[in-house]
Write a structure and sequence with these properties.
By secondary structure, this protein is an alpha+beta fold. It contains 16 helices and 24 strands. Bound molecules: iron/sulfur cluster (SF4).
Length: 566
Amino acid sequence: MRESLEFDVLFVGAGPASLAGAYRLSQLIEEHDLAVSQGKRTGRKLKETSIAVIEKGKEVNSHALSGAILDPRALEELIPDFASLGAPLDTPVVKDHIYYLTQRRKLPFPLIPPPLNNHGNYVISLGRLVGWLAQQCEQKGVNIFPGFPGVELLFEADRVTGVRSGDKGLDKNGKPRSNYEPGPDLLAKVTVLGEGPRGTLTKNLVQKCGLDAGRSPQVYSVGIKELWQLPKDRLQAGTVIHTLGYPLGQKIFGGGFLYMMSGELLDVGLVVGLEYEDPGTDPHHLFARWKQHPLVAGLLKDGKLIGYGAKAIPEGGFYSQPRMVHDGVLIIGDSASFLNSQRLKGIHLGMKSGMLAAEAIFECLLAGDFSSEKLGRYVEKYEESWAWREMYRVRNFHQGFDSGLLAGMFHGGLQMVTGGRGLRQRYNTKTGHERLRKMSETGAATVRQPTGTATDALRLDNVLTFDKATDVYHSGTAHDEDQPCHLHVRDLNICYNRCTHEFGNPCQHFCPAAVYEILGKESGQVQLQINFSNCVHCKTCDIMDPYQIIDWVPPEGGDGPNYKNM
Ligand code: SF4
């Protein structure tokens, strides 16, 4: 028997956007009730309002992963005394470096472009920030439920009325085991989707309700990251290094990052645009190549790998933001494309979006009116905010790189002096998977070995560079194998009869966790094996599959990566 639980407001996904939203809403309610008690405001008290946050990870921050550098602007607004409350922002940025890399050399940028000047920002672990924000929320009475994935939006006619959370205890054939528990229906006056990039519920809502009509297609990158423990005094805490060029070259969007935290911990990562043409491109192999560059290899020498993860990044920006309000539901954070790809930052924008959603919901609670018109105050508030101005100023940034790095730098420079306009008010673009070229077009008989040529094969030494399985081990990822596979491939005939010949099954290359394996290549009887227990929930397959037949759906609650300090 499936239970139903009722809340006033339900946030889906315990990222910074949802937690900032839940905190802001409880803060507004607290201030309101105090003012009513003191006779400074009339109206009923709202302290009975129930606010819940559900999260698919085992702990509130098990799936939290980012670079990360935090612009503290939203946090300062939300919790002005964050420092005295122990916010884990212990590493102010002290130095910025940018290098253009060739295969062996590094060429320093003579000047740091203003958007990449991180003075006043902090190198942080998003996982630690999320853990701390969750504590602040709980102190305000917010209910946080880790291990509860939202698997389906519940509707009454066209209105979203809540979320069904995932069943527990189904075996691999979808049959109940002895420990079977149906996931409860979580009903709410307002559901707020802060599921991160390419959220399952958000994807379905946007498609079902046409919330992307008239918007530009969303485009993504995948960020692949390791956490390293370095020898003492290798790099000053707060040092930030960004790289362009090798191994991505001119055509693939992205670049490397090295962020030094306290405790000799170094974030080591490469962002790869999911809009490349060569279906053999393997972001994880590119990451290994990048680490072999003397700049990176020198920094990592005698260090130790202690963490790994990967995550999609919504790069599309302002024109790719879907309509963020529908009857009974709001979309915030990465799910609504709140990311400034010029500044390589989104946490502050995600938090602000959650706070603006909270302010709109507070007005609904006061009025007892949760209609979509009233919820639409969220968009009005966004349009009046610094977040809108920041997003608008970089509205064409990512699209300027559609023709490569040099064109991107040209457009980026022009956009900076034209307030984000550049050559046109709105640059056109297309989704990443549409840019993949068939092998017949690239001239390859079979797909090339990723990032290498016959004479330039990638060698992994298990000291500096690792295979995907070893990296996945360091992500702490675990899934119960006796459950339905959470990677739904809708038509295997397409995999075998078309994709093998047309694109060489790029899933085996783009997945940074070796989930997809094509067996039987020698015999010609190919078979797709899905090692779903390796999945680090990055969503790359859902995004980059050329036929769009892979649907990533949440596995059993609590499964997936177990990121620490990521
Ligand atoms: Fe990422 Fe998909 Fe691979 Fe999971 S299966 S790690 S979501 S690409």
